[in-house]
Design brief:
The chain has 270 residues and is an alpha+beta fold. The chain has four helices and 13 strands. It is globular, with a radius of gyration of 33 Å.
């Protein structure tokens, strides 16, 4: 069984990381199948490993090659020459050409024995091939619990999640992801339907975005607008005017003097 985009694997005695997500599968003429893997439990870029250096933890079953191609395009995961794409009933190689990588002629694959591998929708079916028990690994911390736990180790955020296991991501990317609105994070992760994000807390989604959608995260600007309040528009800080330019207050009207109590003497007329 050749794995494809979205499958989860465990490495065999690799000192760098223990688990990861398959991004691409390459068919090398002289060395066989290699997987490009995004590590989960180490803040590393994708790593290329031979098929013999990993064991599958969770596979994926794409309905057709077109569904896989569409999902890859939506996720911004371009094709590369030498790739081998596999779906439920067909497979194809990615060929090099003057116009860039192109899909070769599809060829049929054996029908899956399990009725679970007969999807009709676009989202792949996740198929567990072995129990997901985190392997002993120098980068791993304590065991995962029922609720995610998070800690920062230098420039790395380490998070233990009961669904995704042990995750490690660069702290700067994690904090950048946290500054995004939850709706924006959901949109980034939805573009990668092989990630299991349903009902996951915000911290887990931020870690997954930092790990799988780092190029799509928008860094914060130097002048961030104030956060909107729950009851109205953002508050604005108004600088008080300089005292020298303040308008002088209008004086209150004075009380007119009372008339004299005695009348002035009258002068005799002509």
């Amino acid at each position: 069984m050749i794995l494809t985009t979205g499958a989860v694997v465990r490495t065999i005695d690799d000192p760098r990381f223990a688990t990861g997500t398959v991004l691409r599968a390459f068919d090398r003429p002289n060395s066989g199948i290699h997987y490009e893997i995004q590590p989960h439990d180490a803040p590393l870029p994708p790593v290329l490993l031979h098929v013999g250096d990993v064991v599958p933890v969770r596979s994926t079953a794409w309905p057709t090659l077109q569904h896989l191609l569409d999902a890859r395009a939506t996720a911004g995961l371009p094709l590369q020459p030498g790739e081998l794409l596999t779906a439920v009933r067909e497979a194809a190689s990615i060929l090099d050409s003057p116009d860039g990588p192109r899909l070769g002629r599809p060829f049929p694959v054996a029908h899956p024995a399990s009725p679970a591998l007969n999807p009709t929708g676009q989202t792949p079916i996740a198929v567990d091939t072995t129990p997901l028990h985190p392997a002993s690994h120098p980068h791993q911390g304590h065991k995962t619990g029922q609720a995610p736990t998070l800690r920062q180790i230098g420039d790395t955020i380490a998070l233990d999640d009961p669904v995704h296991g042990h995750l490690e991501v660069p702290a700067d990317l994690f904090h950048t992801a946290l500054r995004h609105h939850p709706t924006d994070l959901d949109a980034l992760l939805t573009r990668r339907p092989w990630l299991l994000t349903t009902n996951r807390p915000l911290l887990v989604k931020a870690a997954l975005a930092a790990q799988h959608a780092a190029t799509d995260l928008t860094p914060p600007t130097d002048h961030q607008p104030s956060a909107p309040s729950a009851d109205g528009p953002p508050l604005r800080l108004v600088r008080p005017p300089d005292a020298s330019h303040r308008p002088h207050p209008t004086p209150e009207p004075t009380t007119p003097p009372e008339p004299p109590t005695t009348a002035p003497p009258l002068e005799p007329g002509p």
